[in-house]
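Q: For a teaching handout, I want to show students what a protein-ligand complex looks like in C-alpha coordinate form. Below are the inputs, and the small molecule is S-adenosylmethionine. Please produce the holo structure.
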Amino acid sequence: MAENEYVLGTDEDELNRLRRQHELWVLQAQDLWVRAGFRSDHKVMDLGCGPGFTTLELARYLGPKSRITAVDASDRFLRYLTARAQAEFPQARIKVEESFIEKMDLDEKDFDAAYCRWLMIFVPDVLGALRAVRHHLKPGAVFALQEYVSYEAMQVCPEIPVMERVLTAIFKSWKDQGGNPNRGRELPNLLEQAGFRVRELKPVARISRPNEPLWDWPTGFFGNYLPRMVTQGYLSAEDRLEFERDWKAAMTKPGSFFLAPMVIDIVAEAI
Ligand SMILES: C[S@@+](CC[C@H](N)C(=O)[O-])C[C@H]1O[C@@H](n2cnc3c(N)ncnc32)[C@H](O)[C@@H]1O
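A: Here is the structure, written as C-alpha coordinates, with S-adenosylmethionine included.
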Protein backbone atom coordinates (compact mmCIF):
# COMPACT_ATOMS: atom_id res chain seq x y z
CA MET A 1 0.00 0.00 0.00
CA ALA A 2 1.46 3.40 -0.92
CA GLU A 3 1.95 5.72 2.04
CA ASN A 4 -0.12 8.92 1.86
CA GLU A 5 1.92 11.49 3.74
CA TYR A 6 0.09 14.64 4.79
CA VAL A 7 1.92 17.96 5.04
CA LEU A 8 3.38 17.24 8.52
CA GLY A 9 4.59 13.76 7.56
CA THR A 10 3.78 10.30 8.96
CA ASP A 11 7.17 9.26 10.36
CA GLU A 12 8.06 8.16 13.90
CA ASP A 13 8.71 11.74 15.04
CA GLU A 14 5.28 12.90 13.86
CA LEU A 15 3.61 9.89 15.48
CA ASN A 16 5.30 10.72 18.79
CA ARG A 17 4.32 14.39 18.41
CA LEU A 18 0.69 13.38 17.86
CA ARG A 19 0.81 11.18 20.98
CA ARG A 20 2.05 14.03 23.19
CA GLN A 21 -0.39 16.43 21.51
CA HIS A 22 -3.24 14.09 22.36
CA GLU A 23 -2.16 13.84 26.00
CA LEU A 24 -2.28 17.63 26.20
CA TRP A 25 -5.66 18.03 24.46
CA VAL A 26 -7.53 15.01 25.80
CA LEU A 27 -9.68 17.02 28.23
CA GLN A 28 -10.87 19.32 25.45
CA ALA A 29 -11.75 16.29 23.30
CA GLN A 30 -13.70 14.60 26.10
CA ASP A 31 -15.49 17.84 26.92
CA LEU A 32 -16.69 18.07 23.32
CA TRP A 33 -17.84 14.42 23.28
CA VAL A 34 -19.90 15.07 26.41
CA ARG A 35 -21.49 18.23 24.95
CA ALA A 36 -22.13 16.47 21.62
CA GLY A 37 -23.89 13.64 23.47
CA PHE A 38 -21.76 10.69 22.31
CA ARG A 39 -23.21 7.53 23.89
CA SER A 40 -21.91 4.03 24.62
CA ASP A 41 -24.43 2.47 22.23
CA HIS A 42 -23.47 4.80 19.38
CA LYS A 43 -21.67 3.54 16.32
CA VAL A 44 -18.98 6.20 15.88
CA MET A 45 -16.58 7.29 13.12
CA ASP A 46 -13.20 8.84 14.00
CA LEU A 47 -12.20 10.70 10.85
CA GLY A 48 -8.58 11.55 10.06
CA CYS A 49 -7.76 9.45 13.11
CA GLY A 50 -3.99 9.42 12.48
CA PRO A 51 -2.29 6.78 14.69
CA GLY A 52 -5.58 6.56 16.59
CA PHE A 53 -4.88 8.26 19.89
CA THR A 54 -8.39 9.74 19.66
CA THR A 55 -9.83 6.37 18.56
CA LEU A 56 -8.36 4.57 21.58
CA GLU A 57 -9.55 7.43 23.81
CA LEU A 58 -13.04 7.10 22.35
CA ALA A 59 -12.95 3.35 23.06
CA ARG A 60 -11.97 4.10 26.68
CA TYR A 61 -14.72 6.72 26.96
CA LEU A 62 -17.52 4.79 25.27
CA GLY A 63 -16.73 1.56 27.07
CA PRO A 64 -15.64 -2.03 26.35
CA LYS A 65 -18.36 -2.75 23.78
CA SER A 66 -17.84 0.39 21.74
CA ARG A 67 -18.13 0.28 17.96
CA ILE A 68 -15.74 2.65 16.24
CA THR A 69 -14.59 2.95 12.64
CA ALA A 70 -11.38 4.92 12.26
CA VAL A 71 -10.59 6.42 8.85
CA ASP A 72 -7.31 7.95 7.67
CA ALA A 73 -5.28 8.28 4.48
CA SER A 74 -2.10 6.98 6.12
CA ASP A 75 -1.48 3.25 6.00
CA ARG A 76 1.45 3.60 8.43
CA PHE A 77 -0.68 5.33 11.09
CA LEU A 78 -3.50 2.79 10.65
CA ARG A 79 -1.14 -0.16 11.16
CA TYR A 80 -0.05 1.36 14.47
CA LEU A 81 -3.69 1.79 15.51
CA THR A 82 -4.64 -1.76 14.50
CA ALA A 83 -1.90 -3.26 16.68
CA ARG A 84 -2.84 -1.16 19.71
CA ALA A 85 -6.59 -1.68 19.31
CA GLN A 86 -6.18 -5.47 19.21
CA ALA A 87 -3.90 -5.50 22.25
CA GLU A 88 -5.76 -2.98 24.41
CA PHE A 89 -9.43 -3.27 23.42
CA PRO A 90 -9.99 -6.88 22.30
CA GLN A 91 -13.71 -6.67 23.15
CA ALA A 92 -14.41 -3.45 21.30
CA ARG A 93 -15.21 -3.46 17.62
CA ILE A 94 -12.62 -1.07 16.25
CA LYS A 95 -12.35 -1.12 12.48
CA VAL A 96 -9.80 0.79 10.47
CA GLU A 97 -10.36 2.02 6.91
CA GLU A 98 -7.72 3.55 4.69
CA SER A 99 -9.32 6.31 2.66
CA PHE A 100 -9.22 9.98 1.86
CA ILE A 101 -12.26 11.46 3.60
CA GLU A 102 -13.47 13.09 0.37
CA LYS A 103 -13.53 9.66 -1.32
CA MET A 104 -14.83 7.65 1.64
CA ASP A 105 -17.31 4.93 0.68
CA LEU A 106 -17.65 2.47 3.57
CA ASP A 107 -20.02 -0.52 3.53
CA GLU A 108 -21.82 0.82 6.60
CA LYS A 109 -23.81 4.02 6.20
CA ASP A 110 -25.69 4.04 9.51
CA PHE A 111 -23.34 5.74 11.96
CA ASP A 112 -24.83 7.57 14.96
CA ALA A 113 -21.90 9.92 15.51
CA ALA A 114 -18.68 11.18 13.94
CA TYR A 115 -15.68 13.03 15.31
CA CYS A 116 -12.71 14.72 13.71
CA ARG A 117 -9.87 16.78 15.15
CA TRP A 118 -7.34 18.66 13.04
CA LEU A 119 -8.39 16.96 9.81
CA MET A 120 -10.36 19.51 7.75
CA ILE A 121 -7.45 21.98 7.96
CA PHE A 122 -5.59 19.60 5.59
CA VAL A 123 -8.43 18.60 3.25
CA PRO A 124 -8.59 20.31 -0.17
CA ASP A 125 -12.24 19.53 -1.04
CA VAL A 126 -13.96 20.30 2.25
CA LEU A 127 -17.52 20.41 0.94
CA GLY A 128 -16.94 17.03 -0.76
CA ALA A 129 -15.54 15.66 2.51
CA LEU A 130 -18.50 16.93 4.56
CA ARG A 131 -20.95 15.47 2.03
CA ALA A 132 -19.13 12.12 2.25
CA VAL A 133 -19.40 12.21 6.05
CA ARG A 134 -23.12 13.09 5.85
CA HIS A 135 -23.63 10.16 3.47
CA HIS A 136 -22.42 7.74 6.18
CA LEU A 137 -24.62 9.10 9.00
CA LYS A 138 -28.19 8.39 10.04
CA PRO A 139 -30.54 11.40 10.08
CA GLY A 140 -30.22 13.00 13.52
CA ALA A 141 -26.66 11.71 13.96
CA VAL A 142 -24.18 14.06 15.58
CA PHE A 143 -20.90 15.32 14.04
CA ALA A 144 -18.37 16.94 16.40
CA LEU A 145 -15.33 18.76 15.00
CA GLN A 146 -12.27 20.45 16.52
CA GLU A 147 -10.33 22.56 14.02
CA TYR A 148 -8.36 25.82 14.07
CA VAL A 149 -10.30 29.04 13.55
CA SER A 150 -7.65 31.69 14.19
CA TYR A 151 -4.25 30.17 13.60
CA GLU A 152 -2.47 33.54 13.50
CA ALA A 153 -3.51 34.05 17.13
CA MET A 154 -0.41 31.94 17.84
CA GLN A 155 2.31 34.02 19.48
CA VAL A 156 5.05 33.94 22.06
CA CYS A 157 4.76 36.86 24.47
CA PRO A 158 6.66 39.13 24.83
CA GLU A 159 6.27 38.96 21.05
CA ILE A 160 9.06 37.65 18.86
CA PRO A 161 9.22 39.23 15.37
CA VAL A 162 10.19 35.97 13.64
CA MET A 163 6.80 34.45 14.53
CA GLU A 164 5.15 36.40 11.71
CA ARG A 165 7.56 34.84 9.17
CA VAL A 166 7.02 31.38 10.64
CA LEU A 167 3.23 31.85 10.41
CA THR A 168 3.51 33.01 6.79
CA ALA A 169 5.54 29.89 5.97
CA ILE A 170 3.04 27.57 7.71
CA PHE A 171 0.06 29.16 5.91
CA LYS A 172 1.80 28.90 2.53
CA SER A 173 2.97 25.32 3.00
CA TRP A 174 -0.47 24.06 4.09
CA LYS A 175 -2.33 26.08 1.43
CA ASP A 176 -0.02 24.78 -1.32
CA GLN A 177 -1.35 21.29 -0.48
CA GLY A 178 -4.97 22.43 -0.48
CA GLY A 179 -5.28 22.93 3.29
CA ASN A 180 -6.08 26.05 5.28
CA PRO A 181 -5.04 26.65 8.90
CA ASN A 182 -8.17 28.82 9.37
CA ARG A 183 -10.57 26.24 7.95
CA GLY A 184 -12.78 26.59 11.03
CA ARG A 185 -14.04 29.88 9.58
CA GLU A 186 -15.56 28.09 6.58
CA LEU A 187 -16.88 24.97 8.28
CA PRO A 188 -20.22 26.09 9.79
CA ASN A 189 -21.43 27.43 6.42
CA LEU A 190 -20.14 24.39 4.52
CA LEU A 191 -21.73 22.01 7.05
CA GLU A 192 -25.11 23.65 6.45
CA GLN A 193 -24.59 23.21 2.68
CA ALA A 194 -23.68 19.54 3.17
CA GLY A 195 -26.87 18.52 4.97
CA PHE A 196 -26.12 19.40 8.59
CA ARG A 197 -27.66 21.82 11.07
CA VAL A 198 -25.02 23.54 13.20
CA ARG A 199 -26.02 23.16 16.86
CA GLU A 200 -23.10 24.70 18.74
CA LEU A 201 -19.95 26.77 18.10
CA LYS A 202 -17.40 27.37 20.83
CA PRO A 203 -13.93 28.95 20.70
CA VAL A 204 -11.14 27.24 22.62
CA ALA A 205 -8.24 29.54 23.55
CA ARG A 206 -5.30 28.27 25.57
CA ILE A 207 -2.17 29.70 27.11
CA SER A 208 0.95 27.96 28.38
CA ARG A 209 3.76 29.32 30.50
CA PRO A 210 7.23 27.74 30.24
CA ASN A 211 7.52 24.53 32.27
CA GLU A 212 3.79 23.90 32.15
CA PRO A 213 3.09 20.61 30.33
CA LEU A 214 1.32 22.37 27.42
CA TRP A 215 4.65 24.06 26.56
CA ASP A 216 5.71 20.67 25.10
CA TRP A 217 3.08 21.08 22.40
CA PRO A 218 4.55 24.04 20.47
CA THR A 219 8.06 22.80 21.27
CA GLY A 220 7.29 19.47 19.57
CA PHE A 221 5.53 21.10 16.62
CA PHE A 222 8.28 23.62 15.90
CA GLY A 223 10.98 20.99 16.49
CA ASN A 224 9.46 18.72 13.83
CA TYR A 225 8.02 21.17 11.36
CA LEU A 226 10.53 24.00 11.09
CA PRO A 227 13.34 21.76 9.69
CA ARG A 228 10.81 20.30 7.24
CA MET A 229 9.79 23.79 6.07
CA VAL A 230 13.46 24.73 5.63
CA THR A 231 14.10 21.60 3.51
CA GLN A 232 11.01 22.39 1.41
CA GLY A 233 12.04 26.03 0.90
CA TYR A 234 9.19 27.65 2.88
CA LEU A 235 11.42 29.03 5.62
CA SER A 236 15.02 30.25 5.53
CA ALA A 237 17.67 28.53 7.66
CA GLU A 238 18.33 31.92 9.30
CA ASP A 239 14.67 32.30 10.34
CA ARG A 240 14.74 28.81 11.80
CA LEU A 241 17.82 29.65 13.88
CA GLU A 242 16.31 32.97 14.98
CA PHE A 243 13.13 31.22 16.01
CA GLU A 244 14.98 28.50 17.94
CA ARG A 245 17.05 31.14 19.75
CA ASP A 246 13.96 33.24 20.64
CA TRP A 247 11.95 30.17 21.68
CA LYS A 248 14.72 29.09 24.04
CA ALA A 249 15.03 32.63 25.41
CA ALA A 250 11.27 32.73 26.07
CA MET A 251 11.76 29.84 28.54
CA THR A 252 13.56 32.17 30.94
CA LYS A 253 12.00 35.59 30.20
CA PRO A 254 10.00 36.85 33.18
CA GLY A 255 6.26 36.59 32.57
CA SER A 256 6.56 34.98 29.15
CA PHE A 257 3.78 32.80 27.76
CA PHE A 258 2.66 30.97 24.61
CA LEU A 259 -0.70 31.87 23.12
CA ALA A 260 -2.05 28.83 21.27
CA PRO A 261 -3.71 29.04 17.84
CA MET A 262 -7.43 29.28 18.55
CA VAL A 263 -9.53 26.15 18.06
CA ILE A 264 -13.25 26.03 17.30
CA ASP A 265 -15.51 23.28 18.66
CA ILE A 266 -18.41 22.56 16.34
CA VAL A 267 -21.37 20.32 17.02
CA ALA A 268 -23.61 19.64 14.03
CA GLU A 269 -26.55 17.34 13.44
CA ALA A 270 -27.29 15.41 10.26
CA ILE A 271 -30.64 16.52 8.83
C1 LIG B 1 -2.86 16.37 12.66
S1 LIG B 1 -3.25 14.71 12.31
C2 LIG B 1 -4.59 14.48 13.45
C3 LIG B 1 -4.77 13.06 13.90
C4 LIG B 1 -5.90 12.85 14.92
N1 LIG B 1 -7.17 13.35 14.42
C5 LIG B 1 -5.58 13.51 16.21
O1 LIG B 1 -6.21 14.52 16.55
O2 LIG B 1 -4.69 13.03 16.91
C6 LIG B 1 -4.06 14.79 10.75
C7 LIG B 1 -4.41 13.43 10.15
O3 LIG B 1 -5.26 13.65 9.02
C8 LIG B 1 -4.91 12.73 8.00
N2 LIG B 1 -5.38 13.29 6.74
C9 LIG B 1 -4.99 14.46 6.17
N3 LIG B 1 -5.73 14.68 5.05
C10 LIG B 1 -6.59 13.63 4.93
C11 LIG B 1 -7.63 13.30 4.00
N4 LIG B 1 -7.93 14.09 2.97
N5 LIG B 1 -8.32 12.16 4.20
C12 LIG B 1 -8.03 11.34 5.25
N6 LIG B 1 -7.07 11.61 6.16
C13 LIG B 1 -6.37 12.75 6.00
C14 LIG B 1 -3.41 12.57 8.12
O4 LIG B 1 -2.97 11.36 7.54
C15 LIG B 1 -3.22 12.62 9.64
O5 LIG B 1 -3.27 11.35 10.18
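A: Two things your students might notice: The chain has a mean pLDDT of 97. The two ends are 36 Å apart (CA to CA).
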